[in-house]
Amino acid sequence: MLEVNHLSISFLQYEKGLKQQQLKVIKDLSVSVHSGEILAVVGSSGSGKSLLAHAILGILPTNATTEGTIYFDGVKLTPEKKEEFRGKEISFVPQSVNFLDPLMRVGTQVRNAARGASTSAQRKAFERLRLAKDVEQKFPFQLSGGMARRVLASTAMVSGAKLIIADEPTPGMDPTVIKEALKYFRELADSGCTVLMITHDIGAALEIADKIAVFYAGTTVESAMVNDFSGDGRLLRHPYSKALWRALPQNDFLPIPGSQPLPYANLPGCLFEPRCAFATTECRQDEPKPREIRNGIVRCIHAT
Amino acid sequence: MKNMIKFILKKTIRMVSLLIALCIISFLLISYSPIDPIQAYVGADMMRVGPEQRDKIAEYWGLDQSPLEQFVQWGSRVLQGDLGTSMIYRRPVADIISEKFLNSIILMSLAWLLSGIIGFIIGSIAAMKKDTWIDRTIKWYCYTLASTPTFWIGLLFLMIFAAWLDWFPIGLGVPAGVIAEDVTIGDRIKHLILPTLTLSMIGIANIALHTRQKLIDILSSDYVLFAKARGEKGFVLFWRHGLRNVALPAITLQFAAFSELFGGAVIAETVFSYPGLGQATVEAGLRGDVPLLLGIVIFSAIFVFIGNLVADLIYRLVDPRIREGKFL
Amino acid sequence: MNFLRIMTQKKSLIPKLNLRQRTLIAMIVSAIILLSVIFAGILLGDERIATNLENRNLAPSLDHPFGTDWLGRDMFTRTMKGLTLSIAVGLIAAAASSLIAVVLGILAATAGKIIDSIISWLVDLFLSVPHLVTLILIAFALGGGMKGVIIGLALTHWPSLCRVIRAEVMQLRSTEYVQISRKLGKKRWWIVTKHMIPHLIPQFFVGLILLFPHAILHEAAITFVGMGLSPHHPAIGIILSESMRYLSTGMWWLAFFPGLCLLIVVRSFDIIGENLRMLIDPHRAHE
Ligand SMILES: Nc1ncnc2c1ncn2[C@@H]1O[C@H](COP(=O)(O)OP(=O)(O)OP(=O)(O)O)[C@@H](O)[C@H]1O
Ligand code: SF4
Ligand SMILES: [Mg+2]
User: What Pfam family does this protein match (any one) (chain C) (predicted)?
Assistant: First the structure.
């Protein structure tokens, strides 16, 4: 199982005149997934989903500093352990097509991720995701967005890892292929793998995930069971999760007014307070601590 | 293929327009020079040349005509491939240039290869070991090298290896006073080593720093991140993704550096009295050999053009994004 | 950037000097070196470089830190004077060159497509021949001497800065406030002076300082081959080309110290320019 506790990430930056600044973009973030489970991470753009994935893998840029702990199967993931586990125990499906080497044929890139009989594994994965046979000979720039994502997803299929981290693996794919890819992640979980899937597509998340973590402004505002996302969202604990749920087309299709806060430091209290319909003056005082309510975790002082 | 031909054609047309302008400007510049070309022709015997003889020489070289007439004559001959006759060597400029260039090309290509290889290797090492003392040393060394006058490096080499250690001769392409047939290959090599080292020093800094920066960019790129996430690291990572992506820009840069190479050869050949095109340039300038100087200007422009063209073509031929993109 | 917590780090917590401090120190040290060279060049008396046959060919000593030459002239004084001259020539040439670069760069970016392609053709023209060959050609046309060197340097060194300025202006033109000013009907000239010039001035100075090293090295090189400053000037190129004749005599100090000092001067300019650029454009320093 995977356990991320109190993760914080900040970037060292230089301004005009070379003044140093620390930009804290992830703060006190915690998630956990058991083996055999799929955790879906949802949240708006810029809420720190990709950074979480990169932090687990230890591939953050060099000007980033992290705090907090990450455990996988009871082993504390130090930088050395991460390096040892990458590609073997942990496999990664990155978010964008830029993650493919522009000068290497995509078939080779997938094979480099595989252990053992790489060519046959790669061909099998391509077949399963309905990639034509000649795709393996192509360079990334020759692929459409959806094809490239399928190539990226195949790297996870061939790796044989126990922890799969997939950063938005499905956009741009055909519905049938999405189904196939999701089904595959489910199979991986059922065979004992731990899957962390980052996605914008709550619908897809609901189909296959066991738990859902909702991110907002660099922290987890709620961890809920899949069943909590149903009906009018009353089972959900956090106002943001509820709003997110209600914003879906199949529900009320109501957009959440306002936007994610920019200057983090200026908000002493709850980060969602400026947009929250239930906000009270107390919400502005202290950052809400994570609380356990009805088998889920929430960061809201008024949650019940 | 059609695109390629179109590309080369476009480049060549631009080159021709540049060359024509270059000829006009160079000729204009030179025709206003206060340096007396007749003196260049006559040399040290100037005192013994009377006014009539002067006029005769001037007539012979066409120097009595207006600059415009001279230009038209010279220009039409250049168009026919005749660069005129060198005043100091008293032989066709084209012959002198090809003879001298043959000497220079050995020097230049060796130095070019050496600087390219060394620069690429140390640049790659610096990038792979970024922010370690190795990187800092290499960076410091390159910046210092880039600030070092070439001729001073040459002088240092001469002082250390020729004057002090006595390993090498102090100059000249071949030993003095030996007839051409008796010059052995060993002699030639001996006379080549120091100029080559000096000339290669210039290019190293440029290519190394460029390779370093490029490779650092590549190493922090998303696709290297993903390769790391797949468990690749160290030399395998460099071999699979770094080398592939950094080699092309480096080779291109090296071809685009023909201009510095030629300029460096002028200096290195002067320091080591190496009988190449660079030294001929200086001599033509110092002694007022107008036809030779003009010929070299044109030749050097073509030389630089070819380097740039090859750089562009390599990109087009090797980079799949351009090569195969056309056929999709 | 979505939400960023800004937390200026306390300096006292960092044991090492931070980048800003290191940058400033490097610049100050370089500036001090350059200023001392210039002062030494101006203040040292001419009597030390008068012919003094009693002191011929002396190796470096406390009295003559760089030794003396075959005429008994103090090499330290000659070197300092030569460097000062080089800096002066480099300054004039680099200033003229960057002026050309700025004018052409702004023109290329603002005066329409035709002018832009003409200027890009001009850039190509000046890059089509090796600098040193152009310098020899121009020096020849002007009959050698200081004028030839300065004009040659000014005419050959502008293209790269010109490209930078052009790109910078292009980018400025597309920024919002310039677009808004234009919509408000401001005159082109008003936009240029109010919005563009203030942004371009730092770029200009950095470009100018970074032109120095090239200009000085090329000046020394062309003087060294004999097409530059005349032998009467105490130029570094002259000193080094003279020293060639004495190489085999073992008088290493004739070439060693002047060249080393030239290297230090060039490097100092480079350090100032590069660090200044980092201060202005810290994006380059992020990693
Ligand atoms: N190298 C970096 N330096 C500074 N800030 C960064 C860096 N990388 C990411 N950030 C900031 O961290 C925040 C989170 O980024 P992240 O990529 O994790 O978002 P995300 O949740 O994956 O968004 P999306 O859904 O768009 O992929 C963003 O505000 C981003 O600006
Ligand atoms: S703590 Fe207050 S402001 Fe924040 S989500 Fe809960 S109710 Fe809204
Ligand atoms: Mg992301």
Answer: BPD_transp_1
